[in-house]
């Protein structure tokens, strides 16, 4: 067992806050890092210590982060998701610097986190893959592959996920522009501009399996349905999937475990599949990190996946997969205007009020007074609801969203409510093209939002700690008034 005493959280926003909460529960010290624009962010004052890195893009500077960890006496690094989370060179550099990387080994990351290598690994053990070409280094090569498998195709980044560096192409004439755009975006997001080509499966469900490995074996913790996407970015996720049967579920989990074991995978990961209209499934990719949507798996299994990550990185055993119970649905709340082409929205959070209801979880990286910057992903928070069945979880999530107040920036709140109330979601007949297949007219602001806004109108806009950081205005400590201890 390797003792982990202090963990540097190499991330920001809600995932940094999420990791810090588990570290606190485990009695492990936390070290936050932050850019100049994030100096007052919640993850900074939640952590036991914090170190500034500088420019907004400094979360991508491996040398700065590792140096900060060494100087502060950190013993491990948790990368969260995004930024350097799936960068094998960063993982190797952490290990070389004496820092435990809370994630897969660099070798496993190269074998599975890289989409080209992952396709080969899946092919080698007989897991079906989407037809395509895993090596595509020029527009001509992309065109040749697309001609072979048939249009439409996807041109995709090989070195990362999250929908970045991805373009759908319907004809040979579109190849050159799509290739250049995908390469440019992939380099900006992952510092890796390698691409591959895959046949576009339509209509398809996006179903993924959560795995935990220890380098020898692996366990599957069930699947998540992630079909509701916009521009390959997931919007709503749930577990279990309403669109597959028990036999398909078992085969997906078996394929995921087989792939993890064959590559010596350790720590948390997600094996993603496309399920076609005929029920056939195809391996898509492996995310060699914790997923944004991991809370729905936690809700139905009762496991803390961050704790499992830390325990595995310390040399601990894999957990025994519990029988899943009930149903969980997660909505991603983004700072964007869904009714103006999803344009990003920036500015100060002028008013914030989260619902407090049974079986409702809020994973957030903002507080009232937080500044939403243009430099980072637009995700503000995730709202997760559990129910004994899918309909109860859906109703709880609709209620939670209607009782959420965020003023100061545009958000996707009303749009998500529309999705949750749509016939497509109610019936479970969702596919990766569901959102883009119809128009979405602006919805009225829920009455609950207006009522909560009026009720909160006289509360202080911003509260700060003695050190100047933003803090929770709803904490009971603020209701106590002035008092002294030890007088």
Question: Can you tell me about this structure?
Answer:
Helix 4 runs antiparallel to helix 5, helix 7 crosses helix 8 and helix 12 runs antiparallel to helix 13. 32% of the residues lie in helices and 25% in strands. The chain is globular. The strands form 6 sheets. The chain has an 8-stranded antiparallel beta sheet with strand order 14-13-10-11-12-15-22-20, sandwiched between helices. It has a 5-stranded parallel beta sheet with strand order 3-2-1-4-5. A 4-stranded antiparallel beta sheet has the order 6-9-7-8, sandwiched between helices. The C terminus is likely disordered. It has 3 domains: 97 residues, Rossmann fold (3-Layer(aba) Sandwich); 69 residues, 2-Layer Sandwich (Dna Ligase, domain 1); 243 residues, 2-Layer Sandwich (D-amino Acid Aminotransferase, Chain A, domain 1), CATH 3.30.470. It has 487 residues and is of the alpha+beta class. The chain is built from 15 helices and 23 strands.
Helix count?
15
Please provide the count of β strands.
Answer: 23
Radius of gyration in whole Å, from Cα?
A: 22 Å
The CATH architecture of the largest domain comes to 2-Layer Sandwich
User: What share of the residues lie within helices?
Assistant: 25-40%
CATH topology of the largest domain: D-amino Acid Aminotransferase, Chain A, domain 1
